[in-house]
Amino acid sequence: MNIVVCVKQVPDTWAERTLRPDDSRLDRASVDGVINELDEYAIEEGLRLAEAHGGEVTILSMGPDKASESIRKALSMGADKAVHLIDDGLAGSDALATSLAIAQVLGRTGFDLVILGSESTDARMGVLAAMLAERLGVPQLSQASKVEVDGTAIRINRQAEYGYDTVEAVLPAVVSVVEKINEPRYPSFKGIMAAKKKPVETLSLADAGIDPGQVGLGSAATEVVSFAKRPPRQAGTVVKDEGDGGVKAAEFLAAQKFI
Amino acid sequence: MAEILVLAEHSGEKVKKVTCELLTLARGFGEPAAVWLGPGAEAGRERLAEFGAVKVYVADGDDLDDYVVAPKAEVLAALVAAHSPAAVLVAATPEGKEIAGRLAVKTGSGVITDAVGLAAGEDGTGLLAEQSIFGGAIVVQSRVRTGTPIVAVRPNSAAAEPAPGPAELEQVAVEVSDAAKAAHITERVVQERGERPELTEAAIVVSGGRGVGGAENFALIEKLADSVGAAVGASRAATDAGWYPHQFQVGQTGKTVSPQLYLAVGISGAIQHRAGMQTSKTIMVINKDPEAPIFELADFGVVGDLFTVVPQLTEEIEKRAGS
């Protein structure tokens, strides 16, 4: 099975993340980059499926130079090889352009299964799996909390507010995963050493056959008009429980007309 | 005035609150036209009329609900092509955002997700969407500059205000393509959690965290939630520990909620959690650690043991309700 896992490098959630004043883009230079957390679950699921059914796991990442750190980590978890789509012309791409570029590369690498995290911790849009399925014309198996493959048949549990749906399709398909699905492994020392020798193919826009006019900030279909730091919340009232904490809380709720 | 398509969220015949909110928002920019997918439109119509729907486009048929997302995006794309609306609004639920994503690709349009407010642009035509990003630290105004603006709006972003509209039903003939039938939903598994409102829609959310200390103690959280008609949420510490089901996790890798009132019980308030609840209008905190960062967000906080404060609060609420 040819499994491609899409990995995004994102700024560490624990760092202070800001937008750049000149172009309203995420300031990626000033913060540490990490693998998007949900993508680690996608990598783990890809590795488990390859271990169970045979096949190869390829990491696909689009991003600047720094993204190679996240690619190496993904390889050290056990993926076989990687493709890094890197080009200055991609900077500032919105979701529409990102899905176009990634779909183009997937068309080139081929795949039985594309797996990604259901959303990134920076943009948090949660649209990429749906967009890729639409562009590639393959089944969308998103929000998966369980994945089972049997030959070319695939079945997932799709997480929903009320519980879950069981969804069936035939490969090739796009799967996005939620964190309930598994527990990602830590890279072993052996894995880290092995990752250094694993092949990483870098592709430019031209290499991937992507029209530079359709990606990047200039062609983005959405734009940030303005942004500002959220004003700090007004300091509230904090009381110490002296045996009447619950009553005081109820009084606050009553004053605010919640009860 | 140009039409604004509002994808109606409904459970059978019952229109969800977020749809009334979206219709209210849409009235500020154009003529709201609801899109009703699946059965139940005749019965749901009245509610849509109450909140100002001028039209209700109805696409019925089992095809729509039996496959993941794609058929719904197809119907919307057909309506966009036929009626050239000024914008399409959907609820920013996981599925709503996926529909928005597919529709964006189909129509070559820009998509904005998780808007918490909408305003008219300066030129009077465009829509400005307000988003709250990076765990609520930054407020952004964005707009779509290509195609038909597609905006996924978070529940509770606006108060639903009635304003009667004709809500004329108009049947839409749909032929769902084979390509859209690739991901077949074979079973829906409903895990009952009582009669509580949906987490992302609820006006009040009561969440429990590490301080709750165990699955059995979540009964305290549920009882408090039920006393105020709230949904129950949980922090990642609580769901990771298996104390409460994962789909109720509020936070960066879980649900984002924006209720009128958020009650954080035994939750320290790591950025991971704050990212999922920081846009709540009013925040109440109960935590025994006065240094817990969640108190920075609190409009009202009680430093105390949740095992005494929560039952007392619940009892007091029930007493007031009974009097």
Secondary structure elements and pairings:
The complex is a heterodimer of chains A (259) and B (323).
Chain A: E1 2-6, E2 9-11, E3 33-35, H1 37-53, E4 56-62, H2 67-77, E5 81-85, H3 95-109, E6 113-117, H4 128-136, E7 140-150, E8 153-160, E9 163-170, E10 173-177, H5 189-195, E11 200-203, H6 205-208, E12 222-229, E13 237-240, H7 245-255
Parallel strand pairs in A: 1-4, 1-6, 4-5, 5-11, 6-10, 7-10
Antiparallel strand pairs in A: 2-3, 7-8, 8-9
Chain B: E1 3-7, E2 10-11, E3 14-15, H1 17-27, E4 31-37, H2 41-50, E5 55-59, H3 70-83, E6 87-91, H4 94-107, E7 111-120, E8 127-133, E9 138-144, E10 150-153, E11 168-171, E12 184-190, E13 204-208, H5 218-227, E14 231-234, H6 236-240, E15 261-265, H7 271-274, E16 282-287, E17 300-303, H8 306-322
Parallel strand pairs in B: 1-4, 1-6, 4-5, 5-11, 6-10, 7-10, 13-14, 13-15, 15-16, 16-17
Antiparallel strand pairs in B: 2-3, 7-8, 8-9
Helix pairs in contact in B: 3-4, 5-8
